Amino acid sequence: MIDIVDTQTRSRMMSGIRSKNTKPEIIVRKFLHANGFRYRLHDKKLPGRPDIVLPKYNLAIFVHGCFWHRHTGCRLVSQPNQNQQKWEEKFKQNIDRDKKHIAALSSAGWRILIIWECGLRKANPDLLWLPEFVKGHQKLSEWPCINGEKEAEAPFLI
Q: Could you give the C-alpha distances from 119 to 29, 42, 93, in angstroms and in order?
């Protein structure tokens, strides 16, 4: 399939995609704040600059886009037809970088939660499990965890 816009236009469009303060991230931040949790944003001292850091609970939260971080089994993950080799390499680098950051945070004693974009796309995403998770002791989890077509209601251990 041929791209419908020229290379410069596509480049400009892609550069407009934000990495901070995205809608999914803001949804999680508002929910946490409304439930009395205070946090730091994009802590430069931590590997991978987690989107949300709750130092009191030793928890780092990443709000990942399903397309960019390749959420396994998600309907939002697709493979662009143009420049496939470049895209495959880009996605591989993203996944490898995510694994490296998670390993570094984990070895430093941090708990990690990955919240995927697809779970936050509903009008009122169900985050009622989040306060209990924040106060809990699970080390590494993700939400939603997709098993076939079913989405889990609470986070699962990775």
A: 14, 21, 24
> What SS3 state is found at 1?
coil
Those residues with Cβ within 8 angstroms of residue 11's Cβ, 6 or more apart along the chain or in another chain: none
Reading the block at residue 122, the tokens are 């509903």
Unique residue bearing structure tokens 């390499």:
89
Nearest to 91 by CA among 104, 118, 72, 117: 72
Could you give the 3-state DSSP secondary structure of residue 40? strand
Residue 43 identity: D
In which residue are the tokens 């780092």 written?
60
pLDDT of 136 above 70: yes
* Angle of CA points 79, 94, 103, to nearest 5°: 140
**pLDDT tens-digit series, residues 80-125:** 888 889 999 999 999 999 999 999 999 999 999 999 999 999 888 9
